[in-house]
Amino acid sequence: MSNWDLLKIIFILSLCQEALSIKCWVCRSDADPKCADPFDNSTVPITDCKQEPDLPHLPGVRPTMCRKIRQKVNGEWRYFRSCAYLGEPGIEGDERFCLMRTGTYNIFMEYCTCNSKDGCNSAI
């Protein structure tokens, strides 16, 4: 294999890595009220998830989706948007998927993931 062939392979692999990356909104409504619904991204930068750090409790797992968590705790709504390391894409693999949970002490949580496009966690 020539050096030229090796360079072509490296270039193609770098394009594949770029294609697998997704960009998500990353914010918390308790720190920035614009993170709540309706979402105002005027002060929130979009984050390239491939730049997110490895998590010690998930070795080798990289974020491949976006997520939005909506919580109601004691009557107060909180919103969290971030890159998702785990979760389920929609049925077709490119739409949102949501789980809802209700607990004791007036706690409600909705956890949604998506991978249809960059910034897909703005409205899910």
Automatic annotation (TrEMBL):
Domain of life: Eukaryota
UniProt entry tagged with the keyword Glycoprotein: yes
Keyword list, A-Z: Glycoprotein, GPI-anchor, Lipoprotein, Membrane, Signal, Transmembrane, Transmembrane helix
Main localization category: membrane
Subcellular location: Membrane
Entry annotated with the keyword Lipoprotein: yes
InterPro entries reported in the protein's UniProt record: QVR-like, Sleep_regulator
GO BP: any one term: sleep
Membrane topology category: Lipid-anchor; GPI-anchor
GO CC aspect terms: side of membrane
N-terminal signal peptide: 1-21
UniProt name for this protein: Putative conserved secreted protein
Origin species: Rhodnius neglectus
